[in-house]
Write a structure and sequence with these properties.
The chain has helices spanning 5-8, 26-76, 82-181, 200-209, and strands spanning 183-186, 192-196, 212-220, 226-228, 231-239, 244-251, 254-262, 267-269, 278-286, 289-297. The chain is of the alpha+beta class. It starts with a helix and ends in a 5-residue tail after the last strand.
């Protein structure tokens, strides 16, 4: 009894299943799908692995920076003992070395993935560098322009400084001439006075000398005394014909009358603990009015 190919099943080695025409067999399609899935899964795994590696690299880098900052702080902290600093630095350096090893390992792992992007990054950086170079060139031009302006201003300032120096020299000469013109006379108490100023210019020169304190006053005849420095003055009257005046001085609760004093005369009086007398000098005498200044010793603080 003979057996037909349809009856024998797979016994005939030349037999192939019916594929329904001339298309690829189902197992081939299944194989292709599985291969695509495996390839896709590999790509996904590689992408996840790359992301994980990069995250680890960033964390390791931050950790390295933190350790290096700690090292810098420890090295700069002079209050720590040498032994403690060395122990801490040694431990941190060990951690840094370990972290650097991890970074190197991670870098080697991602090196392959980064190679393909290096060229793109380089091209982009090249374009950015060109733009940055152009921008820096413009800034340099601006700086040069500002420097030229500054040089011009410095030249003007040098001229101003020379003018100021000349003015100061001239002022010093005038001050010296004014001081040379001042006179020292005896006061009404018979004590040799300091230099006497007869006008505001000479009084300014005395102030620059700084040997005494000076308090200007414009005193009018009144019922109540006027405060001048640490004392009180009360004008009793003036004599325009003889160019004289009379004034009351209240100092340390003691009232003293200075009668018939003349213009530019040092009118002297003592206060408590004063080694040299205070002086009143009147430069102008008017009707019921005198104008002048009070001179007090520097060391009295009054």
């Amino acid at each position: 009894m003979s057996i037909s190919p349809s009856q024998s099943g797979s016994l005939d080695p030349t037999w192939r299943p019916d594929t329904g025409g001339g298309g690829p067999p189902r197992w081939f399609i299944l194989f292709v799908l599985v291969a695509v899935a495996v390839l896709f899964g590999s790509n996904v795994y590689l992408a996840l692995q790359l992301r994980t590696t990069r995250t680890g690299l960033q964390q390791a880098t931050k950790q390295l920076q933190a350790h290096e900052e700690q090292i810098a702080q420890i090295e700069g902290n002079v209050t720590l003992s040498t032994k403690q600093s060395e122990e801490r630095l040694s431990a941190l350096r060990g951690e840094v070395s370990s972290t650097r090893g991890q970074i190197n390992q991670a870098a080697r792992q991602v090196e392959t993935e980064l190679v393909s992007k290096t060229q793109q990054v380089a091209e982009r950086l090249s374009a950015e560098q060109k733009a940055a170079a152009a921008r820096i060139g413009g800034e340099i031009d601006q700086i040069r322009s500002a420097a030229a302006t500054t040089d011009s201003k410095l030249g003007n300032l040098s001229g101003d400084v020379s003018t100021v120096k000349s003015d100061v020299s001239s002022t010093r000469q005038e001050l010296q001439k004014t001081i040379a013109d001042l006179k020292s006379v005896r006061g009404d108490l018979g004590v040799q006075s300091g230099l006497i100023a007869t006008n505001s210019s000479e009084l300014g020169a005395l102030r620059r000398l700084g040997e005494r304190n000076y308090f200007e006053f414009d005193l009018k005849k009144a019922k109540l005394p006027q405060r001048v420095g640490s004392v009180s003055l009360k004008l009793k009257g003036t004599d325009l014909r003889r160019n004289r005046y009379t004034v009351e001085v209240l100092a340390d609760d003691k009232l003293t009358e200075k009668k018939d004093r003349t213009i530019n005369e040092p009118v002297q009086f003592y206060v408590a603990k004063a080694r040299i007398p205070y002086e009143i000098v009147v430069n102008q005498i008017g009707k019921d009015r005198i104008v002048g200044y009070l001179a007090t010793p520097k060391d009295q603080g009054r």
